[in-house]
Amino acid sequence: MKKAISVILAVILCATLFAACQKKETPVADVPGDSDGVSGENATAANDDSWNDMTDEELYELAKAEGGEINVYTISSRMQTTCDSFNEVYPGLNAVATNLDQTEATAKIRTEAESGNITADVLQCKDGAGEIYYDFYPLGYLETFYPSDICSHISPELLKYGMPFYTGLNFWYYNTDQYPDGAPVDNWWQIIEKDDAGNNKFNIICANVGSDDTYITFYANVILNADKFAEAYEELYGEPIEYTYDASKLPNIPENNAGYEFLYRLSQCKLTFISDGDDICDAVQGSSVPTLGLSSAGKITNRDDNGWPIAWVTKLAPFPNMMNTNYLYVVKGTDNPAGARLFIRYLMGGADGTGDGFKPFTKEGNWSIRDDVTNEKNPFDLAESGAVSGDMEQIHEIFLDVKDFWDYWLGTSPYTK
To answer: Does pTM surpass 0.85?
Structure first.
C-alpha cells in the first residue's frame, strides 16, 4: 500500500529511535543519508544533536549573530501571539508566523529546499497518521530538535515520533438542557444504537470521517484496539458481538474485527455531516431531539462565550478518545538554526515550563504534554482524560485501508444513496 521507500525508512527510523531524552542522551532520528539533507526522493533525515543541551542564553547569542527573520509555518492562528511575545523577550530577533494548511506548509518547505531559497525555519504540524514522520521527514527537509531539559518532562511514548508540542482531544458533545444529570451514553456502542423501527436513537452530527484525517486516524486506532471494543460490546449487551460487515468487499480488511464492525455500523446510520466544529456544537445546543456531536475539545469555549448548553461525554468505554498531538520540527538548511531552536524552546514554555510562549495555547481543551505544566482551564489533566496514544506506525500502515472501508460502506448506506 505504501511506497517501498517509505516502509524501508520507517523500519530504519524505528530501529534507531531510543529511550527519550535522558540528560545528555536525547532521542535523535539518526538516519544515514545525504549530509545536505535534501537530494530528492531518496534523501533521508540527518540530525545534529549538539543543540540539545544548549541553554536559552547560548542559543540567543547565536541567534543574534544569525540575524535573520525566524519564520514559523504553523497550522494555528494563535502562533503569531507567541511570536509577538518572543520578539519582546528577545530583542534583536523577529519571529513571524505564517498560517498554512499542513499540506500547503510541507509543499512550500519542499519547494523552497529544492529551489535553494529556504524561508521557513520552524514547522508546527499534526501527525496522527504519520504522514510527516513516515512520509515527509525521511526525505530530509526537516530536522528534529529534542532539548534535553524539556524532554525530561515528556513521556518517552510521546517522543517516539518527533518533538511533541501539545495534545488536543475530540469529544462527543451532548446538550445539558436535555440531559441535566449527565451524559446519556457511557459506551461507544450506545451512540449507534437503533430502535425497533431501525431509527437512530441519537441524532449523530460529525464531520464526514473520510474527509478528515483526524477521524480516520481515530477509527484506525479503534480497529487496532478491536479486542477492547469487542469487550465493551459484551459488557454492554451481555453477549458476544455479531459481525455483519463483509470483509471480502475490499482488500486488506480482516474478518471479525470489532473496530471495523463499529465503523460499518456507523456508516449505516443516519448521519448529519458538518465540517466546522463550532457549527457542530451549535447544532447540538439547538437540537430539540436527543443529539450527539463529535468535535474537538477546544470548542467547549462556546459554552462560556455563547452560553450554549453543551458538555463533553468524558466517560466512554473502552476509551473516550485519542490524543491528537502536535509536533515541532526545525527546517533543514535554515539560515537561523539557533533562532529556530530558541523559538521552539520558548514555545514549549522554556526550561521550567513557566514561560509565556505556551500561554496562547492554554485554552480549555488543549493539554500540555509536559508533566511539570498544568493547564488550569481544563477540568482534568491528560492522564485523567482516559485518552490513549495511538501507535503511529500501525496507524500509518492501515490508514488508507480504513479510509477505503469507510468510503465504500458509506456509499451503500440507505441514507446516502
So the answer is: yes
